Amino acid sequence: MNQEAKDRAVEQNRVDDVVQEIEKKAGILTQRSHVLKENVVKLRRNFWEDVTVNLDEPDDVIETQASIKQQAELLSEKERGHGKINDQLKTLDRLKDSPYFGRIDFIENTESEKENIYIGIGSLMDYKDEDFLIYDWRAPISSIYYDFTPGKASYETVDGVISGEITLKRQFIIRNGIIKGMFDAGVTIGDKLLQQALGNNASTTMKSIVATIQKEQNQVIRNEASKYLIVQGVAGSGKTSAALQRIAYLMYRNREVLNGENIVLFSPNPLFSSYVANVLPELGEENMKQTTFLEYLESKTSSSITIESPFEQMEYVLTGEDDGGYLTKMIGIEYKSSTEFKTMIDDYISRLGSEGLLFKNITFRKEVLVSKERISSYFYSLDQAIAIPNRMELVSKWLLGEINNIQRNEQKKDWVLEEVELLEKEDYLKAYRHVQDQNDDEESLEGEEKYLRQEVVKKRLSSIKRQIKSYRFVHVLASYRKLFGEYEHVNTPVNWEQISHQTFAKLSRRFLSWEDATPFVYFQGKLIGDTTDRSIRHLIIDEAQDYSAFQYAYLQEVFPYTNMTLLGDLNQGIYTHGTREHTFLPKQMRENVEKIDLTKSYRSTKQIVEFTRCFATEGEYIQPFNREGDLPTVVQVDTIDDRNERLIAEAKRLLHKGHETLAVICKNLQECDELHQILRNKLSVTKIDEETHSFHKGILILPVYWAKGIEFDAVIIPDASAGQYVGQNDRNLFYTACTRAMHDLTIFSIHQPCTFIKEAPTDKYQIKKN
Ligand SMILES: Nc1ncnc2c1ncn2[C@@H]1O[C@H](COP(=O)(O)OP(=O)(O)OP(=O)(O)O)[C@@H](O)[C@H]1O
């Protein structure tokens, strides 16, 4: 038996021992879980028997309440305990399959004996609860596994830095308790485990990377000091992966105060949301909340207002050039994305503090109960030193008082009696009981009618009261629209008249263009207050380069105390705004900021990265990971029919090669639709659109903005002809599309290819012509 085989046998023995230990622990926990479950069931069944209920005297009522509370607390404690044990059992189950992925032998400088540290997705103690059989990957000591190769190493603890030497670094692939692979790392880390992981087929859901986190990614994951962490990472550098492991890390470090409920991830699109949804549960952690920025804004606006999605905006930008209003819209997008526009809105709001705000009549049964003019004059009679939202609160209180007065008058009207007559028998019974309980001196019948009249009016006016409480009496949309109408500005940008005209027309249809959505919600917040969710402690923004300066300013306003992690890549900035301001380093976020650059690309083969970096801005900094593959192929054809025929053959070839996910990535939806019509009879192909929230293996066809953040075994770009991708925005689109490929990239062009391809030396790709 050679040394390697001996080592492997020793390690397999250890794995067997650990698995046995896991089984023992699981057995004990399962038993405890059963007992607890029985307890919970019993407690629920006997809940009322164990509570002393006595409502005779006020003191008895208080005692009864206390008794119920105590019983409920006992029950929820037992339920929590049961939940916790189940979580532990789930982790043990995962550990049983693959107890660990790494081993470090470490000698501290102050010690003489080395310690063998095995690292896995959760900790495990021996049966005496004395020694760690497995260390959680997030434990302080585990960081040396990610940060160092054999030799000198150190890690931070709460008590200071601990230094020493790594004498062995070993990686494992363990499945079903059997070691399938075992690699020792030399002084230069030839990461065989990573090679293996990246060589696999792409998955339709993202995987965790804890076994192979790289040093620079570990910095992102373990950063706790900065309020704003900004990660500029090239395509495929593991930004999203690092962000998700970072969430798991932060939850582990702040177990008591941080959970999935107070972390929000802003995803680029719903497809991406489901793509990343498995990572945290796979690590035994609760998922964070996920939303797109569009969904977030929609949750803040009245459902009667339609918001254009960023994808609709994108589609228009890419295809609407022949439209008469195109140029105006483009200039409008740029201006409304800037903080200059925010300044304009701020000026406008301060003017509205003293005049011009629009209100709505409060009407009931087609009658105006309180006119907008009265509301306005009440609002402007209030002290102007009081902030607008606070004044709104006062108006709301005043209006509720007015409605209460109206309620009393209304009760006497004939329509009320008509409605009383239509009431159900139960209502009459209720009225009867009420009058009896009151011991009313009045004639009982009169008392009942009075009660029923009150109830009818109260019920009918309740929705008005609700609306008043949520400040619906303020005409936010009309007030915002006035900004584009009669309002006189001091400084206006070029083409303001046309922008105003276009915006005014859309707002009149209760339609908010994407570029107006954030400004509108911001404006609304300044009038009626923004319902900030203070429980959100950490915000993660993926594809951060696609957010405008205005959007960042807004996020800072609504999440002033929230830590943020921003992940992006300027080369993948595909939305059209923000050319004037470097949005990815928002100027508001200048304090307590740390910026980390990730320059190594892990997703694609070396050949694909070396090709795509030729047309990326500052592409010379992009480092490929050393994984070999075929050169990207550019197929130059003469006609569309030719292209279609060869594209079908190429798709079949790629599937035959063993690829499972194959994406045909178009520039826009229009191109997708046209191509889908052609391909659907010849290939089994699925078209992805706004309604698609998850995808399966096979051939997919989708526009590049839906492919953001996702990857595929092979990518086909159906049309990268000279006229198709032109200019900076298209450069980023094309770069984003190409960098979705893990193993193979094929690009078609009808006649000459686009200039970006030509920026790559001819030895970086192979060209095939008819
Ligand atoms: N340390 C790692 N170990 C294993 N796989 C990794 C590692 N880092 C990145 N990857 C893999 O590389 C691919 C790209 O990662 P990810 O999607 O996180 O990158 P990204 O920077 O967010 O990409 P993009 O901006 O291009 O969408 C994924 O398949 C991911 O699993």
Automatic annotation (TrEMBL):
Single GO molecular function: hydrolase activity
Binding site for ATP: 233-240
Keyword ATP-binding on entry: yes
GO terms (BP aspect): recombinational repair
A cellular component annotation (GO) from this entry: cytosol
Pfam (any one): UvrD-helicase
Identification of the protein by name: Helicase
Organism (species): Virgibacillus phasianinus
Taxonomic placement: Bacteria, Bacillati, Bacillota, Bacilli, Bacillales
